[in-house]
Fold:
Amino acid sequence: MSTSTFPGLPRWVDVVVLPAFSLALALGVAALVSMAVGFDPGQVLVLLVKGAFGSRAGIGYTLYYATTFVFTGLAVAVALHGGLFNIGAEGQATVGGLFVGLAALAWAAVLPPVLMLPALVLAGALGGALWGAVPGALQAWRGSHVVITTIMFNFVASALLSYLLVNTLKAPGQMAPESAAFDPAARLPGMHELLGALGIAWPRTPLNASVLLAVAAVPLVHLLLQRTRAGYALRAVGHAPAAAHYAGIRPAGVTVGTMALSGALAGLVGVNEIAGMHGRLLLDFVAGAGFTGIAVSLIGRNHPVGIVFAALLFGALYQGGAELSFELPGFSRDMVYMLQGLIVLFAGALTPAVAGWLRSGLRALRGRAAAPGAGEGGGG
Amino acid sequence: MDEALNLAAWANVLGTLVGSTLRVATPLILCALAGVLSERSGVVDIGLEGKMLMTAFVAASVGVLTGSTVLALGAAIVAGVALSMLHGYACVSHPGDQMVTGMALTLTAGGFTMVVALAAFKTGGQTPPLPAGVRAEPWLAGVGQALEALPLVGPTLGRFLSLALFGHTLFVYGAFALAGLVWWLVYRTRFGLRLRAAGENPAMVDAAGVSVRKLRYQALALNGVLAALAGSFLVLALNPAFQPHMTAGRGFMALAALIFGKWHPRGAVLACLLFGFMDAVAIRLQGAQLPAALGGGAVPVQAIQALPYVLTVVLLAGFIGHAVAPRALGTPYVKERH
Structure:
């Protein structure tokens, strides 16, 4: 994977300048396209920021979207640390949501509320883990490439959800393929309720307690990867599977574990969307968030802190994009989807090329600085 | 008399089924052939979906604006090759990740086509319907009619053949011809030998004094042309206009067919026909009831639709036969420096 540091680049360039430069390139191309179709990029940017952060309701929506992107971004990043490209966060989130929905429908009447919410979270993580572990196992023991298998699993997951909703879970006497609304006990409390209980007035938005789960997940994943034996094994296998094997680590088991963890994180999207936002099971609730996770992870350079910023960026783009489509006739959120693709292009696919451009640019700068004699340059 | 009517009804059903299988399989075949060429040279292509969507949009827009089939096709081919060159720049010229590049192309194409379609045509992301003069004409419909007019077998066998095999657009017949051509190119020419070697052992190709980079770029250029034909078929023959996200996973299904066909043109075509047949059956059985012997209830259409993907996973895992990818597939070739 293209996540390692690039030779010839100082670390600060690799960690900060490279992603910022890639992001700027992607934004630049998006600005050109929006100019070509008749929008003023400056106006778009101002309206976008205003829509995303200009009101408390806007911030609520931005954080709600960012919650989902933290989960999928972490999912993709964990897999990348293990040397795997998990393109299946979409399907894992779908199955996670399905499990959340099944747990909510089955247990809301049985479990006390104290146990219900943890049960929902576990169900989502379990569903996602299952849908991630199987492709992991197929790669580990049967040699089928995890990218291809997870692509196929995305389609199978959406067919499975559609089958269950149309044939068994659809609420009686209703046309749309949606389950019955969950019992209130099986819904995550909204942040307006939680903050209201603390005496803070907050408008009603889809932002729910899942955001706390996301906030907790970021340091936990970081600690797991950097401070535990399992995390070390995961990164060792991702970095040098042969060396890890000599060191007594079994790459096959680690691959399955990595994909299970990655899938579990993606499965938590189901908690935010199904138990938090919708309160019922429905089709296509993931809506491409799994693919956004790829962009989030790449632009965040696979680091939890970077992922938080990248998730906030995409949350703002989604919310701002939705607001923009009201303000500017003819504008749609598809501009954001395009930007997301461009970010994957510049920050992922073209990273070696962009690093090369930076390297020669830096060399040229240094050459000029060194020529007068005082070659200080930056200490790296 | 009753029996003859029954036969005629069957001829209708089966003929329609075979005919729609061929139509549904055509973009899959073109796309899978595109994948055969690039993957045999060592470049994974999960960007087929995006290439097909982008070229479909270009073909539709140019077709609507100029009223010319030739210009529509030409523009689509230019767009397809351009995307393939970008693909090559990222992961042939530079050691970029091939999977990430493919995903980037697919994601960007999905957003870009919508943005431009909304701005240019202001009809919710569609293009206006393509004028009749631009759309591909049915071919050999006369032969079909002649067969149906035959005495005795006309209403049954003639009707079946007519519905199944005749009156398709040139794309459908062309896809099969191109499959033969790709097979010949890959297995019977010096270029094909080198192409396959570039996908198996690029260092050896390099040592023999042949440029791996050039071979992979050539494979990608042909890949762009074939993906553009697949995209053009969607708007010039299968649908009356460009629809948002109209490829609907066909690029990924072609990728599955390519793997299911073990990276061989013949295998890929057969897999596309199988997947196309499943799709045609699923469409036909939508809302139908299972026979009582099988428990009754609605036919699980979603299961039929998911079957190609499940089969590919099972095959790839080596549970039925074995699909072995080209050895150097997915790894950028970095020439040794001396």
In short: The domain at 2-316 of chain B is CATH 1.10.3470 (ABC transporter involved in vitamin B12 uptake, BtuC). Residues 2-40 of chain B form the longest helix (39 residues). Chain B touches chain A through 53 residues (CB under 8 Å).
